[in-house]
Amino acid sequence: MIEVSNVSRLYKRAADEVHALEKVSLEIPRGQFIALMGPSGSGKSTLLNLVAGLDRPSSGSISVAGQSLDALDEDELARFRAAHVGFVFQFFNLIPVLSAVENVELPLLLTHLSKSERRERALTALRVVGLADRADHLPRQLSGGEQQRVAIARAFVSDPDLIVADEPTGDLDARNAEATLELLRTLRRDFGKTIVMVTHDPRAEKYVDVVHHLDKGVLLESRPGGSAGGAH
Description:
This protein is an alpha/beta fold. The chain has a single domain, classed as P-loop containing nucleotide triphosphate hydrolases (Rossmann fold), CATH 3.40.50. 30% of the residues lie in helices and 28% in strands. The strands form two sheets. The protein has a six-stranded mixed sheet. α5 packs parallel to α6 (174-191).
């Protein structure tokens, strides 16, 4: 599903070169839920952005869902993201003046679906995350955990091949963090979604199939997570 081959990412900062990633190679099978872990500045968010088509490597190549991202220009990358990638962020990034169902509908505005089809899809996604009864609520009328569930519904409403999650439990209490991780695992198990998550949360390890550890831009080790035994 995802093939990262010998990828490095350098940033120029004044006169310095910052090596965010150093010759990282990684293969992620379709339908796997993986965590990228490591200290701040280890390169995990850089790797997530590269896999999601939000950034480009300085060297090396990345292929996602059979598509080589290196060959795409900016417009093609934007179309690739719209068609293949769903995004979940730490701070939910919901539009405050839109209801839950309208927020979930947003990615579908880029499709050829009719208004009624968009609404039905969005309501279905909210049912999957257990929020069908909150469809007409504004974000400020929802708890943090509910807002993150709306954000997850928005991420998979367009049926993407890949869901990327950047610290999805970082702004949640323990109970809502566990519920969010369980929901992501359900998307992997019941819908076959490939999920790449950046996290500092040690609780995440028991929900994922594989943990990949980075430090100073280098992939150090990969080990099974708690879900690996039940992966299928």
